[in-house]
Amino acid sequence: MPFPDSFTTARLVAERLTRDHFDEVLRMHRDPEVMASLGGIRDEQQTETYFVKNLKHWDEYGFGLWIVRQRREDEIAGRAVLRHLIVDGVDEIEVGYAFYAAYWGRGLATELAIACVAFGKNELGWSTIVGVTSPTNFKSQRVLQKAGLAYEREFMHEGHVASLFRTT
Fold first, then answer.
1. Is the pLDDT of residue 158 over 90?
2. Quick one: three-class SS letters along the chain?
3. Would you list the domain boundaries of the chain?
4. Which one is the CATH code of 6-167: 3.60.15.10, 3.40.630.30, 3.40.30.10, 3.30.2270.10?
5. pTM across the whole model
């Protein structure tokens, strides 16, 4: 059973990534605060490559990247992801999230990560889910810990040292 095209948490609504979301993803990729811990600002071509990869993931696996809003608001707050990720040659399932700075510090990333991890484990039966963050991004590390992941090790990810967390 694939993850639903949309889902809600107590405060959030997430909808499946579609071609209509390109401008929003580009806006996120151009935002220096959003991208500070995600590899830096991406240009339009880099965003197109990222976007196509994530649309293809939905087509192949039935889950992937969601665009997220707060309930009862039209403004986009961020994004969530459950997707395949190759870590040192092993196919893993990654949980991820990114929010605009105006939404930081409210526990929204934790709420989203908990929902994604729970569905992956309880409904889809994945035995393990990983999270990847910068070794210095302590706020994101705390989100992963609150979602039930524990630090495992450092590894090279997209040419940079990253911290790998895994469900316990």
1. no
2. CCCCCEEECCCEEEEECCHHHHHHHHHHHHCHHHHCCCCCCCCHHHHHHHHHHHHHHHHHHCCCEEEEEECCCCCEEEEEEEEEEEECCEEEEEEEEEECHHHCCCCHHHHHHHHHHHHHHHHCCCCCCEEEECCCCHHHHHHHHHCCEEEEEEEEECCEEEEEEEEC
3. 6-167
4. 3.40.630.30
5. 0.91
